Each structure stands twice: as C-alpha cells, then as structure tokens.
Amino acid sequence: LLLLIRNPKDLATSFFHFSNRLAILPSYDTWDDFFVEFMAKRMAWGCYFEYLSKWNKYADEENIMTITYEELKEDRAVGVKNIAAFLGISLTEEQLQLVVERSSFQAMKKNSQKTHGAFGDILFRKGAVSDWKNLFSEDQNEKMDKAFEEHVGGTKLGTKLKYEVYCKA
C-alpha cells in the first residue's frame, strides 16, 4: 500500500476549493466558515487528523510506504524511484523520466479532460505547496498547529509531516 499524506493546512485549503467547485459537496461562503467546520470535524469524509491517527497504527508495517505530497513536489524523480523500489518495479532511466514528466501536476492538469472528463477541472486546481498561507489567519494557523500536535504530533506520520512542512520549508 502506498499512503500519500499531505500538510493538513494545504489539505484544508485544497478541500475548501474542491468543496466549492463540486456541487454534491457543501459549499462555503467564506474561508472562515469552512475553517470552523473543518476544525469541528464536520467534513464530508471525516476528520483528517483522525484519518492520520488511524493510519499511524500501520505506518511501520513493511507492506506500507508513506510518502508526503511535499516530498513528491520537492523531488519527483526521487519519489518515483522510491515508489518503484517499494513496489518491486525496475525502471530504466528513460522510463523514470517518462513517469516524472507525466506525473507533474502541470502535465496531469493539462491531460485531465482526457483522464477525468469534466471532473478534471474540479480536481486539478493549483497543486501548490504552502498555498494555505493565502487563506489562514494567524489565529487559524495557531489552532491548526495545536490540533496537529494533539492528534498526531508525536506519531511517526506526524513527525514525517512536520519534518517535510516545517524543517524543509
């Protein structure tokens, strides 16, 4: 199993935009309205912190590889190599480069009409890291940090996310 996790702040930012673009999900008039609901664990697919806590129980199992979105954005080639090795797939340099090119956010967004139809416009927005800084107030940032620490701060997944987000930023 490949477990892809993401900075909770960017996840919330992305989900805010996703929710407002997909008619079957609740939409929010403001980021502040969304943030209150997110922190109160009233999201369509549940609480991300609880999701991470549940997966943390399996983080050390040898058949599970955890990788962060931030790792892949930083160096997709290394990420692809690590994923291929984990899955027992041998890639030539040419194959590696092809996967790296085709798995860029820009390439997937450009091809999204073919791969996802009309849903592609909803699914592929920015693909950025640290976009949360455009929405979060200082108070919201502190609340999210506190919730992160309470739920997953000292766990393996929490440590991995914290390192990727705070130490490499």
From TrEMBL:
Name of the top EC class for this enzyme: transferase
EC number: 2.8.2.-
Gene3D superfamilies: P-loop containing nucleotide triphosphate hydrolases (3.40.50.300)
Keywords from the named record: Transferase
Keyword Hydrolase in record: no
One Gene Ontology MF term: sulfotransferase activity
All copies of domain Sulfotransferase, residue ranges: 2-155
Transmembrane segments: none
Assigned protein family: Belongs to the sulfotransferase 1 family.
Protein name: Sulfotransferase
Organism (species): Campylorhamphus procurvoides
